């Protein structure tokens, strides 16, 4: 087994960077263009509190679909598992992340899971607060507490405007769910706005690694010992990350990497190795399924060389 060090991380980034050529940078997120096509940054935080980092780890990028993890954590804490999973199911799907067809056919018209767009919009209707602004501020300050960063971790107004402008598919998902009674009209409008805003929060690979570590540490902030989210809810979120966090590539990642992950179309991935470490990755060149190609390769390498797969045979009885 390899030992974690900055030198080791640099080797991993060097070996995986060529895979950036196999994807493409999405063309409508402000601040992200083809000049970032070969970027690859990785940060790890271990349970000892050590930080290891390599590559373009100073890039700021928007959360995009990693928002879905935070929205689900808040909804579970606010409303509990029974209520949340009446609105949205917890099953994997082979459809693309922004698919609408399953909403017409699937039982009760519920979205398959909280980590596809329809599911995240439905889940966003279950975050407490009397206005969208108040609900957003609760989420933002939760994320700032987890990451210990209230400077870089903030709403990117330009990205927010672009989420609204390019949101036709998301609006159609929300209105479709209104038509089938999954959401009321008010819920649909507000959930969409909240979803756009949380997608537009800026982070970096260190912030993602801290989010990953928070999940790996079962919802507790190590430095203060405060349990921000009940551990049973964090367990639920990690299970759905394993089965649905990489969209319709989740099965492949469960086999090849073997720990909970969530990706976003900015090319970001958060990883949580239970009880061991948090991982934050940025690699903006993504494949057709919305996942960072080089980032995925980094995860495969880390999993193998550091023996991170939770199904590993290290504990034979
Ligand atoms: N902003 C994107 C959307 O809502 C996020 C999707 C993603 O990261 N996969 O479609």
UniProtKB/TrEMBL annotation:
A GO BP annotation: glutamate biosynthetic process
Reactions this protein catalyses: L-glutamine + H2O = L-glutamate + NH4(+)
E.C. code: 3.5.1.2
Pfam families: Glutaminase
Keywords: Acetylation, Hydrolase
Residues the entry annotates as binding substrate: 65, 117, 163, 170, 195, 247, 265
GO molecular function terms listed in the Swiss-Prot or TrEMBL record: glutaminase activity
Subunit structure: Homotetramer.
Family, per entry: Belongs to the glutaminase family.
Cross-referenced HAMAP family: Glutaminase (MF_00313)
Designated name of the protein: Glutaminase
Species whose genome carries this gene: [Bacillus] enclensis
């Amino acid at each position: 087994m390899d030992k974690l060090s900055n030198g080791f991380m640099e080797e991993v980034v060097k070996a995986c960077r060529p895979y950036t050529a196999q994807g493409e940078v999405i063309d409508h997120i402000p601040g992200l263009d083809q000049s970032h096509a070969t970027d690859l940054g990785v940060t790890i935080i271990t349970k000892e509190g050590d930080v290891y980092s390599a590559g373009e780890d100073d890039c700021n990028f928007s959360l995009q679909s990693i928002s879905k993890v935070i929205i689900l954590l808040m909804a579970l804490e606010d409303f509990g598992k029974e209520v949340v999973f009446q609105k949205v199911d917890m099953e994997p799907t082979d459809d693309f992340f922004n698919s609408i067809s399953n909403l017409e056919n699937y039982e009760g018209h519920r979205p398959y899971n909280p980590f596809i767009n329809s599911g995240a919009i439905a889940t966003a209707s279950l975050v407490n607060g009397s206005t969208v602004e108040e609900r957003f501020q609760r989420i933002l300050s939760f994320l700032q507490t987890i990451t210990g960063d209230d400077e870089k971790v903030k709403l990117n107004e330009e990205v927010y405007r672009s989420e609204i402008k390019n949101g036709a598919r998301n609006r159609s998902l929300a209105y479709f769910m209104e038509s089938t009674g999954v959401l009321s009209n008010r819920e649909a409008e507000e959930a969409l706005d909240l979803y756009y805003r949380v997608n537009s929060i800026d982070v970096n690979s260190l912030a993602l690694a801290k989010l990953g570590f928070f999940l790996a540490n079962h919802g507790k902030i190590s430095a203060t010992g405060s349990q921000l989210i009940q551990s049973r809810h964090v367990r639920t979120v990690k299970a759905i990350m394993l089965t649905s966090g990489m969209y319709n590539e989740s099965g492949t990642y469960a086999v090849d990497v073997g720990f909970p992950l969530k990706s976003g179309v900015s090319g970001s991935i958060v990883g949580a190795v239970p009880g061991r470490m948090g991982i934050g990755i940025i690699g903006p060149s993504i494949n057709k399924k919305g996942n960072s190609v080089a980032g995925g390769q980094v995860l495969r390498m880390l999993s193998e060389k550091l023996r991170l797969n939770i199904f590993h045979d290290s504990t034979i009885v």
